[in-house]
Write a structure and sequence with these properties.
heterodimer, A: 4 helices, elongated, B: 289 residues, mainly alpha, 0% strand
Chain lengths: 143, 289
């Protein structure tokens, strides 16, 4: 490829970068349930599957049985927001580590906890919601 | 004043588009506490210095900070952050090659606008809950930014909106059941949802078709009209002025050297500013009630 052709290609770099962003966006939507609203630059106002319709539930576990629901502290709102948008294993682990530190400090009693990320589907006529699990992680509390 | 405006309208497309991009960066303060002060300082300097908008270092730094914001916050950055970073990159490339600056900003502006609108339309067509109206029903009842508009045109009261939000909250992970309707049984509300759903899709598809149509074709000649129609109708309702200003800056970069089209785009920039600052639906709601 000659220098002139490369220079010509450089002129269209924004279009090339945008197409790469689109491929990246599609990959994460199909691979890790990324909210289609986010992450690509063009997905807004197209679906109810975004932040307010996604929920994170944290439960204390004992012998793999749910014992109680744990509230996520307000100070973790950024990590939680990121997890709601992209519920992949990295983001689940990031929140799990934050929760582990928090639970250890508050002398929490159960040996494991579970983090679940749920999405909502609304009935097209009544808007009555139904929920489906996007991803979950069981985490052992290291004492 | 008139002569000054007249002279300005005949300036190079790169200069006009760069100016409007810089002004929108100052109006719509983007980024986090780390990147925002740099973006604001650089944009102000570019406007204050003589020929500051031509400096490639200015656009390189703006590309860096606007891209940093997208990468650092991914995937949570606002949608227009992506377009802004790409547009700063376009202006940087154009500033590196002044002889072809007009062509670079024109081609990139036109194709990127076309692709963004095409993908936004495809996303709506593929969405599980857009075409059946679920999305706009949900949006109008839960997003407080749209409640005045919904009350005005949907023939529903604020009480009905808050009741719907309350009922939706009560349904969360519970066996809650009620005879009360979440969706108000108002004909106007259902009409508003249907019109919003289809207008939003058709309008965006039209912009995509016009901007991606072959140069010289009928659709290509109508592209500025389609984008202006989108901006006038959308930003009257959706309070996302930053995206609108950016589209106007890109529109100015790719339009023909035609005084009327330039005046229309510039007027649109200030119309969006008025939409953003003067909450017309709020005023009308207060006036009617």
């Amino acid at each position: 490829m000659t220098f002139d052709k490369l220079k010509g290609l450089f002129s269209y770099l924004p279009i090339i970068v945008f197409l790469i962003i689109v491929l990246h966006h599609c990959y994460w939507i199909f691979q890790a349930n990324l909210s289609p609203w986010l992450g690509g630059g063009y997905g807004m106002f197209s679906t109810t599957d975004y932040g307010p319709s996604r929920y994170i539930m944290v439960y204390g576990l004992e012998d793999n049985i749910i014992k109680e629901q744990i509230e996520i502290p307000e100070s973790f709102s950024n990590v939680a927001r990121k997890l709601r948008s992209l519920p992949n294993i990295n983001n689940l682990q990031e929140l799990a580590l934050e929760m582990e530190n928090y639970l250890r400090l508050s002398q929490y009693g159960f040996p494991h906890f579970r983090i679940e990320v749920w999405s909502t589907r609304y009935h097209k006529k009544t808007l009555i919601p139904s929920f489906y699990l996007l991803n979950k992680l069981d985490h052992k509390l290291v004492r | 004043m008139v002569k000054a405006i007249h002279n300005y309208l005949h300036k190079d497309a790169f200069e006009i588009s760069a100016h409007f991009t810089l002004v929108s960066l100052l109006f719509n303060q983007v980024g986090n506490s780390f990147s925002r002060p740099f973006i604001l300082c650089i944009s102000a300097l570019a406007l204050l210095l003589a020929n500051g908008f031509k400096q490639r270092l200015i656009w390189l730094m703006l590309t860096f900070f606007t891209s940093f914001r997208v990468i650092h916050e991914w995937p949570m950055a606002d949608n227009h952050a992506y377009l802004l970073a790409l547009w700063c990159l376009t202006l940087f490339i154009a500033s590196c090659n002044p002889a072809k600056a007009r062509m670079i900003i024109g081609d990139n502006g036109r194709v990127v606008i076309g692709l963004v609108f095409l993908l936004a339309s495809v996303q709506k067509l593929m969405s599980a809950d857009y075409l059946d109206g679920t999305f706009f029903q949900y949006l109008f009842l839960t997003d407080n930014r749209f409640e005045d508009f919904t009350v005005l045109f949907g023939n529903v009261s604020f009480q009905q909106i808050y009741q719907a939000q309350d009922l939706l909250n009560q349904y969360q992970f519970s066996s809650f059941s009620t005879d009360k309707n979440i969706v108000p049984s108002s004909l106007e509300f259902h009409l508003l949802v249907t019109i919003s759903t289809w207008w939003n899709l058709i309008d965006q598809l039209a912009v995509a078709c016009c901007f991606l149509a072959p140069v010289g074709s009928y659709l290509h000649r109508k592209r500025d009209f389609s984008l202006m129609l989108f901006c006038i109708t959308t930003y009257a309702v959706a309070p996302v002025a930053g995206f609108g200003w950016l589209l106007v800056s890109m529109g100015l970069a790719q339009c023909e050297h035609n005084t009327k089209i330039r005046i229309a785009y510039m007027s649109l920039f200030f119309i969006i500013l008025f939409y953003y600052e003067v909450h017309i639906w709020r005023i009308l709601v207060d006036f009617i009630h």
